[in-house]
Write a structure and sequence with these properties.
The protein is an alpha/beta fold and 293 residues long. It folds into two domains: 160 residues, 3-Layer(aba) Sandwich (Rossmann fold); 121 residues, N-(1-d-carboxylethyl)-l-norvaline Dehydrogenase, domain 2 (Orthogonal Bundle). The protein has 14 helices and nine strands. Strands 3-2-1-4-5-6 form a six-stranded parallel β-sheet, with helices on both faces. β5, α6 and β6 form a beta-alpha-beta unit. The longest helix has 29 residues. It is globular and about 65 Å long.
Length: 293
């Protein structure tokens, strides 16, 4: 299948490589052009613009930072819609507000383009291994058309009409953030009590308390590894989407609000570009030094 790919950050670069490995023809574009180089060396075609990346393609994938960025690369000057033929399926894998996804889909439909909102979960590890969870909203027929491409990056599941993918992703981010907070607090308690950290993680990972965050981010916290797989500034953007959706629904989300404030503490300490596991540093700062004997 002929695929266009727009956005080659931490996630996108790995996802695009898996599309190549699956045997699809791939055209790539990124705002920082040098990020295309490894993929071009592996057989991808370098595009000069999103419009060029979409030209002659069956499916166009985008994964960028936020709603304005999605609008710019798909609908802006030299945007992908200008190069795509009618009937092309656009699958945006960014995390944006459900209302924004529906609006973008409507504007693309007016140009003959079918739109899927298809955000992902699984972090850089899942992107590398091709094991992402892909939550898809939109037309069932378009989903089937895009399925071979999506399946090269993970496991796609259609969860409802336009915007449903982003709503399910909001649910995912609530769970991910609060699971991570639990991991950070558990590590902090074990450390303060003098318990061996790896031993604690090994035991609780085999019980009911296990989670993706525990298994993948717990060891990084213990090692003092706060390099980003997913940045704090990005989860904060996602949690803002969650809290805004909750506000519109008159739904109190006290836990989500709390973890957003703790991430804000990270940002206040200049840690916005650290990995989300650096939430542990906010917990440590709240705890202060251990009391003496």
């Amino acid at each position: 299948m002929n695929v266009g790919f727009i956005g080659l950050g931490i996630m996108g670069s790995r996802m695009a490589r898996n599309i190549l490995r699956a045997g699809h023809s791939l055209s790539v574009w990124n705002r920082t052009g040098s990020k295309c180089d490894p993929l071009v060396a592996a057989g991808a075609i370098r595009a000069a613009s999103p419009r060029e990346a979409a030209a002659g393609r069956d499916v166009v994938i985008s994964i960028v930072t936020d709603s304005p960025d999605v609008e710019a690369v798909l609908l802006g000057p030299a945007g992908a819609v200008e190069g795509a033929r009618p009937g092309t399926v656009f699958a945006d894998m960014s995390t944006i507000a459900p209302d924004a996804a529906r609006s973008i889909g409507e504007r693309l439909a007016a140009r003959g383009i079918v739109f899927l909102d298809a955000p992902v979960s699984g972090g850089d590890v899942g992107a590398e291994r091709g094991t992402l969870t892909i939550m898809v909203g939109g037309d069932a027929e378009a989903f089937e058309q895009a399925r071979p491409v999506l399946s090269a990056m993970g496991t796609p599941t259609r969860v409802g009409p336009a915007g449903a993918g982003q709503t399910v992703k909001a649910c995912n981010q609530i769970l991910g953030a609060l699971n991570l907070l639990g991991v950070c607090e558990a590590v902090a308690l074990a450390r303060r009590a003098g318990i061996d950290g790896p031993a604690m993680l090994g035991v609780v990972s085999r019980g009911a308390a296990t989670s993706w965050a525990l298994q993948n981010l717990g060891p990084r916290i213990l090692a003092g590894d706060f390099e980003p797989g997913f940045r704090i500034r990005d989860i904060q953007k996602d949690l803002a989407i969650v809290l805004d959706a909750a506000r519109r629904l008159s739904l109190p989300l006290a836990g989500t609000a709390l973890v957003a404030q703790l991430f804000r503490s990270n940002e206040a300490h200049g840690e916005g570009d650290r990995g989300t596991q650096a939430l542990f540093r906010s917990i440590e700062r709240l705890a202060g030094p251990a009391a003496g004997p």
